[in-house]
Amino acid sequence: MPDEKLIDATSRAQDDVVLELVEQKLSQGVDPAEVLDDLTAGMKRLGERFANGEAYIPEVVFGAEAFNQAMELLKPKLGDAVGQKKGKGKIVMATVKGDIHDIGKGLVATFLDLAGYDIIDLGHDVPNEKIIEAIEKDKPVAVGLSSLMTTTMLSQKAFIEALQEKSLRGEVKVIVGGAPITQAWADEIEADAFGADALDGRRKIDAVLGN
Ligand code: B12
After folding, report:
1. How far is the CA of 80 from the centre of ligand 1 (A)?
2. Rounded-to-integer distance, Cα 18 and Cα 204, Å
3. At which of 56, 82, 108 does a domain end?
4. Cβ(19) – ligand 1 distance below 6 Å
5. What would the pLDDT profile of 159-185 be if each residue is shown by its tens digit?
6. Protein residue closest via CA to atom 28 of ligand 1
7. Which domain holds residue 94?
8. How large is the average pLDDT for residues 19-29?
9. How far apart are CA 21 and CA 62, in angstroms?
10. In terms of pTM, does the model score above 0.85?
């Protein structure tokens, strides 16, 4: 059941309260996936407060930091929940050029790592040429592209076109995600999969790779 206190504290960037509540929940044996849902809902609400002019950039930055600190507490526990099986291949992860949002991408990378993939995280604001270079060098089985803005999602389309031009489209699966991304967008740009969240992303990647 969603915990309004944790969602609210996250949406207000109250890092002390967030960390205390997360620690409390984990010590009480609450499912870490449930805690993660509340943290994610809190970030979503913070975004709405930002969009409505109720929160400003510094609060969003602090909120992001609180989220990341809470994730450090959650990660070891999530491992038990997701289950481990190494050696499923390399996955290159990146947030596209012009976009510095990397929390969601990091979360997806964590879930894929826990699920047994070797993650090559190229970071944020990554030009498509750099991702192509990584494909040629590291031969990953898949690429995960994150875009958090309507202005940067076009880079996902350009990336798939660049893969085609380089005759690399058949070499690697492409999964896309991020707040403005939908299954319809993934279909339009001919991505192999769309992940609505980290767990969905992990499931879809397993499915397209036959794992
Ligand atoms: C935190 C945040 C920031 C932080 C980012 C910190 C960081 N290190 O990431 C800071 C303060 C730096 C920031 C800056 C800006 N931001 Co901002 N930000 C947000 C906010 C509030 C939350 C994003 C977040 O972390 N959510 C939590 C994570 C867990 O969720 P997520 O990112 O959606 O990821 C999940 C899924 O989408 C999915 N997913 C994500 N990526 C991928 C990839 C794959 C492969 C898969 C399968 C799945 C997947 O799985 C994730 C896990 O569940 C959003 C609001 C929102 N609704 O998204 C605005 C938001 C994205 N920002 C916005 C804007 C406008 C900006 C700025 C331009 C503001 C400014 N005026 O400077 C700058 C952008 C600078 C740039 N060039 O990128 C707008 C974008 C609007 C648009 N046009 O689309 C939003 C939507 C806010 C709003 N409502 O207006 N921001």
Report:
1. 28
2. 30
3. 82
4. no
5. 999 999 999 999 999 999 999 999 999
6. 104
7. 90-209
8. 96
9. 17
10. yes
